[in-house]
Amino acid sequence: MTKNSLIRTFTLICSITFLGAVSYGQDKPIKKDLKITSIPKNINNPYMVIQSGGAMDACKELGAEGKVVGPSETGASAQVPYINTAITQHQNALLIAANDPNALVPYLKKAMSQKITVVTLDSDTAPEGRNVFINQASSEGIGQSLVQTLAKEIGNSGDFAILSATPNATNQNTWIKYMQEELKKPDYKDMKLVKIAYGNDEDQKSFTETQGLLQAYPNLKGIISPTSVGIAAAARYISTSPYKGKVALTGLGTPNQLREFVKDGTIKEFELWNPADVGYLAAYAAAQIASGNIQGKEGETFAAGKLGNRTVGKDGVVLLGPPTVFNADNIDKFNF
Amino acid sequence: MSQNQPSTRRLARRISWESMLAVLVLIAIVGGMLLNKDFPTVDNWSNLLANFVEIALMALPLSLIVITNEIDLSVASMLGLSSSLLGFLWAYKLAMPLAIVICLVVGALCGALNGFLVVRFRLPSLAVTIGTLALFRGFAYIILGDKAVADFPPEYAEFGLGNVPFTFIPSPFVLFIVLALIFWVLLHHTTVGRSIYAIGGNQTAARFSGVNISRLKMLLFIASGVISALAGIVFTFRFSSSRADNGTGFELSAIAAVFLGGVTVQGGKGTVTGVVLSLLLIGIINNVLTLADVASEILRIVTGSLLIISILLPNLIAATQERFRLMQRQREITTLGGASAAK
Fold first, then answer.
1. What is the per-residue pLDDT across B131-176, written as a single tens digit (0 to 9) for each?
2. d(CA A135, CA A275)
């Protein structure tokens, strides 16, 4: 073997290794002309329309043939005819926001047995009914990020309160638990949670609870309301009170509901996941699985267009990522 | 001769309504095959039939009730109540056959409540069953709240999902075929059936000819309760899911099928064959349009329009016939008058 051929072999080995590294997991091609059906909870639900819109944008990027079909009511069985139709039409993938965690499972299993990729988004089914689930936000992520947002606004110090929904609302309590975890970090040693108030997700009650909080705690620097009813009611009270601009308010809400309060300065920033991104990610995950690039197993990484890479987590759950933060600069880009 | 005439005319109209439905069903099938290559597949027909099995079950006793000039709007709430109760009893480890029997008995009791209020207090069934529509659904929510029961035994779920071996007929659909045959014999070949038509045609006349109206109506409402409860059980197994809101709004689809089947709002008319054909027609139209990705609002518009046409058309035909008869009589009178004048 000459020295020249040794170099050539070495180069060859290097380039193969290099190629291998590049193609690993992420840059495998997506099959063209995949047929993807998106079934929202119900059509004409504004939130679902945005979510499906995101999925259709992704289909366009992927060169897939996407369509949105679905029932006009949200009964447990209403989506079944659409699942069956997708099977009959030999679709490649199904994106579905499940109206019922169990009722759809036998039909989705049938779809999967016919080589149709099933991706649930927004609302999951039992894990055996789908390949992966796109989770809009982790409870931990929401809890952490709400505390971080408020801390930024009040300079990491002072008293604050939480305005929740009902005392036994599971999601609310999980978020509050993670907020309290986050508060244990040394960064927040000067911040004190003085009260958790419950507005029961009623506008009037949330309004008067806000009033009560501000009177009972004159030193209150901020309020976190992780419920869309609560934050809107609190914003309405604060915007017409002397506390406007003095007490920071943040939480979870929708841009359309809070636009005026962001513009008048009552709220600097609030959060929510972007439903369009949920749909977008679901379509990418579906296309990657349908192309055989990943199987939807824990630890697999795939490319999701403008969102970058995502990794499949435990039980086939794919996390969208931290919630979107809305403020005066970006709020007009969102309509939901 | 003159006494015989209206009944033969009615018979003629009935036959033509059914044959019209049969022709429409054929057109829908041919259209479906032309529009979509997936339409005539075994799987698709299995889905098509399974999709309306609960509504079809409820439509059978409902047809008879409408023929007697009453109505039962509580059928879908009864379905929901039965589904919730089945889930509840199963969650409490009751043996499944026993749970099913209890659901059917509760269906009978609820039907008897409707019948009792209608028969004993002479209340209009429209009002009574709007009341029990809310009442039964309320019971369903009390039993199960917003929870769902899902872990039903696999052999029952298989019954709900599977087909009769070697056919495209879904297993639960067999229940409908059997019941449709029973109702067909009952309505068209027994004295009970004749009494049902008699009540709808003219209640007073029926009473004078010795028909026990109260008992018959009571039995029909009980049958409606039991079969709606059965539909609830079928629904539960078909989706392995027991929820209080199951089948919300199904009563309207069932009533639409009954009216389109040629059972008239005024009572006294209609056949089991007509109702079966109309169920099939609605099922096929829904299936073909869904396969063609037509939006669900359009589906509703189509079903709604069919319902309106089915009520409007017989009335238009009757009105035209009436006008024609009047014109003819007018002409006879004129000729008679002319004849006497000539004399």
1. 999 999 999 999 998 788 988 988 998 898 889 988 999 999 999 9
2. 11
pLDDT digits 0-9 by tens, B300-337: 888 888 888 877 887 788 788 888 888 888 888 888 77
Contact A83, A91 (CB under 8 A): no
Contacts of A49 in chain B (CB under 8 A): none
Give me the total of CB pairs closer than 8 Å, taking one residue from chain A and one from chain B. Answer: 81
Whether residue B286 and residue A106 make contact (CB cut-off 8 A), yes or no, is no
Query: Which residues in chain B are contacts of A73 at CB distance < 8 A?
Result: 248-249
* 10-residue averages of pLDDT along chain A (336 residues): 59 50 58 94 85 95 94 85 94 94 91 96 91 90 94 95 88 92 95 94 93 95 94 95 94 93 95 93 96 93 93 93 91 88
B247 to A102: CB separation less than 8 angstroms, yes or no:
no
The fold of the A139-272 domain, in CATH, is Rossmann fold (3.40.50)
How many angstroms from the chain centroid is the CA of residue B254? 5
Question: CB-based contact (8 Å) between A103 and chain B?
Answer: yes
Q: Is A32 exposed, middle or buried (0-12, 13-18, 19+ CB in 10 A)?
A: exposed
Residues of B in Cβ contact (< 8 Å) with A126? 150
Burial class (CB in 10 A: 0-12, 13-18, 19+), B336: exposed
The C-alpha atoms of residue B255 and residue B164 are separated, in whole angstroms, by 28
In this predicted structure, the answer to whether residue B58 has a pLDDT above a threshold of 90 is yes
Minimal CA separation from A75 to chain B, in Å: 7
**Predicted TM-score (pTM) of this structure:** 0.79
Within its chain, how far is the Cα of B216 from the centroid?
Answer: 18
Task: Indicate where chain A has its CATH 3.40.50.2300 domain(s).
Answer: 35-136+275-320, 139-272
Angle (CA) A243 A245 A248, round 5°: 85
Q: How far apart are CA A285 and CA A293, in angstroms?
A: 10
Fold held by A35-136+275-320: Rossmann fold (3.40.50)
ipTM confidence score: 0.80
